[in-house]
Request: fold
Amino acid sequence: MIKSLLTISLITTLNLTLSACGTMDTAPQDYETYIHQGDTFKHLSLTDIHGQTYDLSKINSKKLVIFFATWCSDSQRMFNQLNTSSLITDKTLTILAIGREETNASLAQFAKNYQLTFPLISDEQRIIYSQYANKGVPRLILLDEHNRVVNTLIGETDNIIEQVKWN
Reply:
């Protein structure tokens, strides 16, 4: 009985601690975002898992850049919400998702599992992610047509997709 209670206590503690998807310090005040409203997005050329390059300077639409991890429950929930939102069919929006510490293979499987139809970019060594934040996924960066940041969101809340607005 005591062993069961200890196990339940440990699992509960771990779930609370890991809810930030990969950080042991889940206090939001520890999260840092290195790009802010009005800044220009630094990575204007991104290559997806199929080898197709996207030049953001030539894409004349608003953009939603998502940093995520395939194993993260918050990322999984966010993609489920995205798939049922009007954003997924918005012709004036380009969605790009960057898998933090993910391989092409893990992203391809994730795309299949979640029926994702937009480009996925592997950031296996965290080279891209580390220029925008210190921890926490999913992270959403809303860009205007000129690749300037409109807003940044940390997607650990239940209905983050409802907060994705360019005005």
